[in-house]
Design goal:
7-stranded mixed sheet; 7 strands; 32% strand
């Protein structure tokens, strides 16, 4: 896993979400700049549609309860919805770069994780959505403590 450069992570809180509240209903929109290598973590009760670019390479995450247990669930679009590009290549890039995106969330929202230490132990699942069954899969990315 690549080492995250904290100087390149920028976090914005929206919709009356603070660095420590709420947990439920909290959503993350993770985007980046190919030119600068900067990562942008937008935290709110809604996804930051205005941060999503035409390449559709964002990661969307939210806290959900499944079988009475909290999880961090996410989605990325490998293809479909007018996305151009090679599905196999996009899939490989998402899998390779997901740890960096999760590190950015963990760092960018570190005050929440410091206050609620149990959040480091919840499972992280990311669905790589594709119209191709080969790439349309739910992946287990461990727990957030893997991204400290």
């Amino acid at each position: 896993m690549k080492q995250l450069d904290p100087a390149r992570v920028f976090t914005e809180f929206r919709n009356n979400v603070s660095p420590v509240n709420p947990v439920r209903g909290r959503k993350y929109t993770v985007t980046h700049s190919d030119d600068t290598g900067e990562l942008f973590v937008t935290v709110g009760t809604e996804y930051a549609d205005d941060m999503i670019g035409p390449l559709r390479d964002e990661v969307l995450l939210e806290y959900v309860v499944v079988d009475n247990k909290l999880q961090l669930r996410g989605t990325v679009l490998v293809d479909g919805e007018n996305i151009s590009g090679n599905s196999k290549m996009r899939n490989e890039i998402f899998l390779r770069e997901m740890p960096t995106a999760l590190q950015a969330v963990r760092y960018g929202d570190r005050r929440l994780f410091e206050r609620f230490r149990e959040l480091d132990n919840i499972p992280v699942y990311i669905w790589l959505k594709s119209e191709n069954d080969e790439f349309n899969k739910l992946y287990d990315f461990g727990t957030m403590k893997d991204y400290i």
